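Batch manifest, entry 17 of 40.
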Amino acid sequence: MEDRAIADGIPEFFKNSVVLQTFGVNYKHPCQEVENVVIPPYIPPEGVRRTLGKAPMDGPRDIWVFFRGKMEVHPKNISGRFYSKAVRSVIWHKFNGDRRFYLKRHRFAGYQLEILRSVFCLCPLGWAPWSPRLVESVALGCVPVIIADGIQLPFPEAVPWPEISLTVAERDAGKLDAILEHVTATNLTVIQRNLWDPDVRRALLFNDRVQYGDATWQVLDALSRKLDRSPRTAKVPSQWASDT
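Output type: structure tokens
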């Protein structure tokens, strides 16, 4: 389906627009051939606040590595051959028997509480490089482990991604235990301290009423800089900034 869409090309009206898209990559792709702003996927901020109200973000975390989501493992399924470029299948086969890895394949309404209990949250690609769990991990203080080659992350001017997350190459998914052991023994405390900055969490959440520095504010800032073609601070209408 993606190959067909690529062959069809970008619709003309998109070429005269600035597209807000969660799909961001650093390699050649039609989605990157139009003016665009990469934005985070929407996560209801009320749910995040309710979860944070049940336990402090810097409280004890008894899950070392967490992942809950779709994992195709049967090679005869079309999903098993193509979904996630088999990265999730590698993770499941390699670490499902490791007690340090909390891997679940079924939906659970209270999964945000599991994130809040976790040190590392795996964010492997699915059909696309991005996933809502990336935002949830940051918002709930779990170090996101991004496994998606060439991904372009939202709002790099506001979110210091190299300082709050880990990036693992898709080919190294089977080495996660050694990689995360090394981080735990070296700079985990620094990453967590950076991750708990409330400005970082604010920048990735779309509030019902725009707040200074939140995701909607970041969109307006990015659009204003594209309009001017020079870096500047967006002028947010005073009625929007009343909650700051």
